[in-house]
Amino acid sequence: MDITITQEQAGSECKLSLSGEMSIYTAAELKPRLLAYLRDAQLLSMDLSEVSELDTAGLQLLWLCQQDAAITGKTFAITGTSAAVMESITLLRLEAAFGMQPV
Amino acid sequence: MEEMEHIREMFIDESLDLLQEMESALNQLKAAPENAEMLNLVFRAAHTIKGSAGLFGDDGYDAIVSFTHTVENVLAQVRSGERACDDDLILTLLDCRDHIESLIEQLNIDDASSSQELVQQGQGLLVQLAGSTVLPPLEQDTEDNTTLVQGVSGRVAVNAYWHISLRFGENVLRNGMDPLSFLRYLSSLGDIVELVSLFSLPGSTIMDPESCYLGLELQLDSDADQATLMSVFEFVADECQIYIIPPHSDLHEYVLLINDLDQESSELGSVLVRCGALTQDELAHVLDPPQPLNQLVLPVAEPKLLDSELSASNIPDNEPDLSSQAIAPKNISANVPEHKRQESRSLRVDAHKLDQLINLVGELVIAGANTSLLAKQNGDPELVESSAAVSLLVEEIRGLSLHLRMIPIDETFKRFHRVVREISRDLDKDIRLKIEGGETELDKGVVEKISDPLMHLVRNAIDHGIEAKEDRIGKGKPAAGTITLRAYYDSGSIVIEVCDDGGGIDPAKVRTKAIESELISAEHTLSEKEILRLILEAGLTTKTTVSDLSGRGVGMDVVKRNIEALQGSIEVESEVGEGSLLRLRLPLTLSIIDGFAVGVGASSYVIPLDAVIECIEYNEQHSKNGNYVNLRGEILPFINLRQQFKESHIDVKQRNIVVVQSGEQKAGFVVDQLQGELQTVIKPLSKIFSHLSGISGSTILGSGEVAMILDVPALIREAETRRSPCHVGCEEVVP
Questions:
Q1: Could you tell me the pLDDT band of residue B491, with boundaries at 50, 70 and 90?
Q2: Most buried of A85, B502, B610, B654, CB within 10 angstroms?
Q3: Model confidence at B110, in pLDDT bands (50, 70, 90)?
Q4: Which DSSP symbol is given to B150?
Q5: Over the stretch B378-414, which tens digit does the pLDDT of each residue have?
Q6: Best CA proximity match to B156, nearest among B275, B219, B248
Q7: pLDDT above 90: residue B600
Q8: Contact (CB<8Å) B315/A88
Q9: For residue B398, what are the contacts with CB-CB under 8 A and spacing of at least 6?
Q10: Which residue has the higher pLDDT, B249 or A88?
């Protein structure tokens, strides 16, 4: 039940790669970290292709990032997804909300 | 297997509790049929019982599930306004509740014949439930338009799918569940045609990553029935708002939905239109219906709406600065009735553990007393002070822990509504039950033990006390008789009265019967009070016909014995033609008392402090008058404890009379020394000592000495008897 974040900075774009579970078990740990990245970047992109599980808590965090970015005038994007991630997003019909094409 | 047994017991226990709640809620509904809170209570109780029963796979449980299921459906209709909640329905529901109780109790018995009876009873009730109103079929056949119902608004939605509205409770994730899994399960029951996710996240600082802020509006194409769909969400039903609206429902359903949900109605309305639940036109009708809408609940947080047309740039325009809003998480609990919330603040505690705790506290009291005594003897001021502080704390703990075992007597009293209802129905009498002082609390152990005696007294009142309707009218009384159950505190005891406005007890009849049954001889003159007390003796009944319930003459003495076993007493009052009153007095606590220690001879005795009124000086003159004193104009009989308990004589400068009271009667105890107040634990006497009259228990004093606790009522009776004329001349004069 671990989550690791790898960060790559490219100018004002902060590229994050997440690996592991984005779930109720890691949500508390993830929230402040993600918000911190968002605070420091103008554009935050997340590659979730190594995320093994995305549950409601995880989806809420993604939503939070999206919402927070919108308020503060930043940009948030999801650049890669795993099968598990897509399944959850599709279940809640959130593809459009996260700027993805429905599968 | 043992575990199964345990789970089964738990189910039965909890279901019976729920059924009690249901009964009380139904009674309240009878008085106020519009009380939505009570209706919800009944619904939830039925729902929970059904859900739990469904976990077992057994036949007996299936019967419970299916019966409760039907009841639940009827309740759902009442809730949505499709069915009126009239008196008849409530009476039928009460009967259904009784039936469910019988079904549950049946689980403990395995009697084929009684279960056959139950099945028939159940069938009968189901027919009654169907009633004369047209029930909309719950299995909606969406192709058959002829089953559409003209509901409250008279207009039916075009929506051919089930509309499900979900607002998950904030603790759903913490409790180990995930909305996604519910959705996956739901998809197995049909096709989710449309789904709109609603996140109502507060600002990022406040947002709790482990709370759930998710709501869903979805359209489901399914052949399943409402109950099946509701059961999907069984495990979270208690903490979430769930609305399942069948296809082609009356638009009123959507009005209710919009009213109930914590969301701005036009926003929710547009979601409903977007997902196809309502047409634009229907929405207009719902938002602005002919009848006035109920007060809308103010939105707690602005929900985020998903809309492919809404671009990211729209969002900052539409919403206020969320981080500055003081937002409380979704207030799902607002839906839970007040008293239910309070109930969840209580715990189920194993009574045995509580007893252990109280025992320990008792030992603590004794040990503390010992310490205090030693400290006083030692004399060190700091030690004395510290020991006093400990004593104070111990006293507080004592008070609190005893209080833990106290429950309001209302729980017992309320059960009698049903008894009165049934028996008066059987006897064709019209009887109302009034309850006063239900909030009076007493020890759980005592409550359990007085239940049966009280039952007997109430049955007596119904059977013998209240007259038949015609008789009452003939006497100028109201046709409906009243039985009152009253409880109150009186000087350290709890008093429970059972009184009726019936025919009263005729002392002449009692006397005759008593002579017949050879309880008294014909020459015996007794006061009216004493005659009335005779009804508590075995073998006495003035009822000429013996009914199933009472009249066999073996009840009242058992009642008396039970009450006396609890260190209590019974008083009888009656007036012919007016009614009768039976008064039970019980000590408030069975284990720890405040006492007043006295020295008699070489021993110490403890008098329950509540019984002590005052102390007066005793001198030789007193005994010359025949064992009574003039206490400010009142005659006070007294007994000499040294004589009573055959203690040795000791020389004291000044003896005292401790004046005690029990109920209406006073007496004095002559003692050698006054030793002061103390808290003490009552140790019951073993059977060997049961013949000792005047002693109700023993205790250990701080000094380690054993002291007997006096049975004040018994001794007062002794003092009274001694005083009466036939005993004069048989007394020893106190030296």
A1: low
A2: B502
A3: low
A4: -
A5: 889 999 999 999 988 988 888 788 778 778 888 888 8
A6: B248
A7: yes
A8: no
A9: B361, B364, B365, B592, B679
A10: A88
- Can you name the residues that pair with B718 across neighbouring β-strands? none
Q: Which residue ranges form the domains of chain A, and what is each CATH number?
A: 18-91 (3.30.750.24)
The DSSP element (H or E) to which B613 belongs, if any, is strand B612-618
**What are the tokens at B298?**
């103010």
pLDDT in tens, B540-556: 665 555 554 455 445 78
Of A40-54, B374-388, B494-508, B618-632, the range with the lowest mean pLDDT is B618-632
CA distance B40 to B76: 9
Amino acid at B510: V
Contact B322 A92 (CB under 8 A): no
CB contact under 8 A, A27 and B323: no
CA distance B378 to B384: 8
B431-436/B481-490 β-pairing: parallel
Name the region of B632 (left: φ>0; alpha: ψ -120 to 50; beta: rest): left
Strand partners, B198: B215
The tokens of B18 are what?
């729920």
d(CA B74, CA B138): 10
CA dihedral of B470, B475, B480, B483, whole degrees rounded to 10: -120
List of chain A residues whose C-beta atoms are within 8 Å of the C-beta of residue B196: 93
Could you give the ipTM of this predicted complex? 0.93
| B441 three-class SS | strand
Q: Find, among A6, A10, A64, the residue nearest to A42 by Cα.
A: A10
Tell me how far apart the alpha carbons of residues B487 and B496 are, in angstroms, rounded to a whole number: 4
pLDDT at B277: 84
Strand order in the sheet with B162-167: B191-199, B214-221, B162-167, B241-245
Structure confidence at residue B180 as a pLDDT band (50, 70, 90): very high
Q: Is B180 on the interface with A (CB under 8 A)?
A: yes
Provide the pLDDT for residue B331. 35
B557 confidence band (pLDDT: 50, 70, 90) = confident
> CB burial class (10 A; 0-12, 13-18, 19+) of residue B616?
middle
Check if A31 contacts B (Cβ < 8 Å). Answer: yes
Quote the tokens at residue B528.
Answer: 């009216």
- pLDDT tens per residue, range B324-340: 333 333 333 333 344 44
**Residue B214 is nearest to which of A56, A67, A73, comparing CB atoms?**
A56
Task: State the Cα–Cα distance between residues B310 and B68, nearest whole angstrom.
Answer: 46
Handedness of CA B441, B444, B449, B454 (dihedral sign): positive
Give the closest of A55, A68, A94 to B178, CB-based: A55
DSSP state, B682? P
Q: Which residues are bridge partners to B443 per DSSP?
A: B406
Strand segments, DSSP code E, in B33-142 are none
The residue assigned the tokens 């007496």 is: B667
What is the nearest CA distance from A64 to chain B, expressed in angstroms? 7
Nearest to B308 among A70, A88, A96 (CB): A96
Please give, one letter per residue, the 3-state secondary structure of B304-331: ECCCCCCCCCHHHHHCCCHHHCCCCCCC
pTM: 0.42
H or E stretch at B221: strand B214-221
DSSP reduced 3-state for B262: coil
